[in-house]
Each structure stands twice: as structure tokens, then as C-alpha cells.
Write a structure and sequence with these properties.
- The chain is mostly helical and 160 residues long.
- The chain contains six helices and four strands.
- The protein has a two-stranded antiparallel ribbon.
- A hairpin with a 2-residue loop joins strand 2 and strand 3.
- The two termini are 27 Å apart.
- GO terms for molecular function: heme binding; iron ion binding; monooxygenase activity; oxidoreductase activity, acting on paired donors, with incorporation or reduction of molecular oxygen.
- This is Cytochrome P450 4V2.
- Its cofactor is heme.
- Belongs to the cytochrome P450 family.
Amino acid sequence: MELTMIMSSPEPIKDQQPQHYGVWGHETIALTITWALYLIGLHPDVQAKLYEETERVFGKDRNRYVTERDLNDLKYLDCVLKLVQHLQSMGFYLELVSSILGGYTLPKDSHFHILIEFLHKDKDVFPDPDRFLPENSIKIPECAYMPFSVGPRNCIGVFF
């Protein structure tokens, strides 16, 4: 209820409201990790490729710190995480000013839910949208993948 009130408010986010990001971000990260581990566990071939990639990037030095370069070199892991977010989307709430969508006029201050899961399972864009194929996450068309929402109140996790 409180999230809906904050997201639908025309008022700018106040100083005390960023505390909510920690709570919401914690849940979405936990769910993403849970789904990732579950899906990786169901696909031993994906697990093997991830293991090979981490061995290649980190080698035998298990005690060194992970660098930004290391993260950039984990291309297959990036594909896996994108696919997890693609298959198990969180959905979001969008506020519009005044717009036309699919030939329908949406008046100013109208609110609606976009079911990201349906967007992410569009067979015109993703030929086999329910299969766990991380390689399909390499080239995703713009606006066909939005697990972090869009607009001024999208998830701040998009930057991490």
C-alpha cells in the first residue's frame, strides 16, 4: 500500500523516503539470487560454463579481490543474470502524463500496471522465451527487456 502511494504521488521523493530503497532493493536482490541459483541448478550445462568462466577469470588465486575488470570479463554470468531477470520479472507500476498507447488515449494522471513477464515472453522478439538459454541474452532489442522499469522512478538497481 505504501509503495503504491509513493509511486503514484506527483510529489518528488522526499529525504526520508530513500530508506525504503534498502528494503525494496533487498527483496529484489534476494529473489533474483534465489531464482538464479534455482535455474542454474536445473541446468548443469549452464553451471559448467559458469564454472569454466570463473576459473578463466580468477584462476587459482582465490584470495584476491574481485575487480571491475573481472566483472566485465564475466560475460556469460552477465547473460545468465539477464536471463534470470528476463524469465522472473518483478513487474512495476507506471505513472503517465498524457499519452496514446496502442490507439487508446490515457488521460493525465492515469495509472496502470505493465506485466513485464508478458513483454519478456513475446514470441515475436524471443522465439523460445521459456527456455533457459543464457546466450539469447546477448542481443536483446531495445525496449524488449526492462526488469528495472523505465522512467524517472525506475529501480536504482539498474545502475549496479
